[in-house]
Amino acid sequence: MAAKRTSSMLFRAVQQSRATDSQFLRGVSGVVSQQQTTTVNRSQLPRFYSSKPEAGKSLKIVGVLYKAKQYAENPKFLGCAENALGLREWLEGLGHQYIVTDDKEGPNCELEKHIPDMDILITTPFHPAYMTPERIKKAKNLKLALTAGVGSDHINLPAASDAGITVAEISGSNTSSVAEDELLRILLLLRNYLPGWKQITAGGWDVAAVASKSYDLRDKVVATIGAGRIGYELLKRLKPFDCKQLLYWDRQSIGKAKEEETGATREPDLETLLAKCDVVSLNIPLTEKTKNMFNKELISKFKRGAYLVNNARGALVDAEAVKEACESGQLGGYSGDVWNQQPAPADHPWRHMPNHAMTPHLSGTTLDGQAGNPFFC
Amino acid sequence: MAAKRTSSMLFRAVQQSRATDSQFLRGVSGVVSQQQTTTVNRSQLPRFYSSKPEAGKSLKIVGVLYKAKQYAENPKFLGCAENALGLREWLEGLGHQYIVTDDKEGPNCELEKHIPDMDILITTPFHPAYMTPERIKKAKNLKLALTAGVGSDHINLPAASDAGITVAEISGSNTSSVAEDELLRILLLLRNYLPGWKQITAGGWDVAAVASKSYDLRDKVVATIGAGRIGYELLKRLKPFDCKQLLYWDRQSIGKAKEEETGATREPDLETLLAKCDVVSLNIPLTEKTKNMFNKELISKFKRGAYLVNNARGALVDAEAVKEACESGQLGGYSGDVWNQQPAPADHPWRHMPNHAMTPHLSGTTLDGQAGNPFFC
């Protein structure tokens, strides 16, 4: 099967890179649909498509990226449709066809036209091309779905696996970008920043209105749900804030060395952890198991008035339950850059709920995040 | 002289506290007008006014604090006019007169009425009662001007010193509160947070418009101007962000141990430092020497597009020069909670300049900051 051949090519590239290149850069690719995470050196990506295709073997590669319009003039802004991840010259130079579009929704979109004969699909989590089982069924030639980022939940993994499609992503590419952004959001919520800024721009000055709901991070109990790459980087950044307690919930321990480094303690029982925390940050992948995990029932286990930060995936939480908790005061505030549908519809309940500090999905796509992402050539 | 007597009473309290109490809490009082900084135990404050006044020796104590209106219902919200720093019962119980007002400006304000016969003035930097030489001249009975916070630049120090008035403040009371807030502002500016939040609340979604000006803190050059208590706490919090370089400018070194702990390097030449930095945070007191220090000339020495964070004092910078630099792009953004006049007038140029992230003055007056401030009894 073509799909299997491509997959084994990727593994061969990995093997070769390990054998021949001692300078491993940050992780490039985790193979998701086969439940293996492995790293590929940046220099291996060209090797993956290393030779000019023979006659008739030109690949059709489709990229789905958001449009940057005037912002695309910045040559560092690679992750947009106009700049096509910086791959066009290289891929076309190798004789492949490279189509990039931002039009990804509905039966008449540009993406739909290419599904039946595309060989490779490149997507990002920022402007996700949702590969449903129906679309995967139509994608008869698809061998590889590459996520230029972390988190491939927009690809239906069981369907991709059944079809023999390799789903791969760029593990670790945006770890520090996202962890930084999470600390920003924790401080924003705790310190009640936004109402102060709004006052100033509206011509006002009322210290009490802001200070009366403003807290320090110092002496608070803070947890990350998930202590993988990003969760660990967040814990490291929380360390010098002299929190009362740093906790994490994960299926496995981060190990004694990292626990000592960060001062964090593992709490295996989620509800016990939630009841203690002033701040909770989500850093787990979205899977069938974690979808809507933070529903009304679980949110009721939080300490009243706690803050929830979610830069992982919007669908980890029940959107309505979060809105209700912000309205009732069960949550003191909610901030994140991820939504259960992206772009978020204009009437999404999170746009106007109280004490939110939401943005579009961008914490992993700073200019530095793009430059440091070894996928962007 | 009465003023000298009160001053020596304060010193005696300090001496006694050192002699009799081994449990020193966080610093309570720095004596400013005599250029000495010393600490007083929380329990010593009552000792300072320890005995019921003899007949005719009741002191007139005036507090100037902002009004919290409905927010004053929170009993933890001590630093407002209504809750009077939590001192009313105690001071009145000792037979003193305690007048608290928020009315501090102009010749007919409430404060003016009490200036001629007040013995002690208690103020905060959040709603500063500006004690000009003219006011000090009228304050014939004033012995002690206490700042319930850090920074007594709203008191004219040469005039207070000439009049024998002790000016004292609560050194260290809000160190971590302010340092936290500075890190928040650094991240806010670098990561271009506010435009993303504005998009969401306005019903929009344009990742490129935000991401095209969004950077990581990682690998940046960051400096604090002033490495006292707050500057040092900021450096500690910056450490795990893997900045390219952490620098500080101060008249003296923080010492080898703190330099090793934070990874920061002293750069004695200010202009050399500014030319290197992506982010600069001000943490120096406002004095005659530092007033308007960051004027057009000095701002022109910054690396183009650098970010400036100022939670120290608004008048350290030239307000117009900052506005022009934000407009021209010489500064990538400016954030702080301090203004050259507080409350800031409705037409202050910083309210609507590009890329600002200003709030009212509040970083040192979180509820935790108030609870942790040993002055608030």
From TrEMBL, chains A, B:
GO terms for cellular component: chloroplast; mitochondrion. This is Formate dehydrogenase. PROSITE patterns: D_2_HYDROXYACID_DH_1, D_2_HYDROXYACID_DH_2, D_2_HYDROXYACID_DH_3. It catalyses: formate + NAD(+) = CO2 + NADH. One of its GO terms (molecular function) is formate dehydrogenase (NAD+) activity. It comes from Marchantia polymorpha subsp. ruderalis. It holds the Pfam family 2-Hacid_dh. Residues 186-363 form the D-isomer specific 2-hydroxyacid dehydrogenase NAD-binding domain.
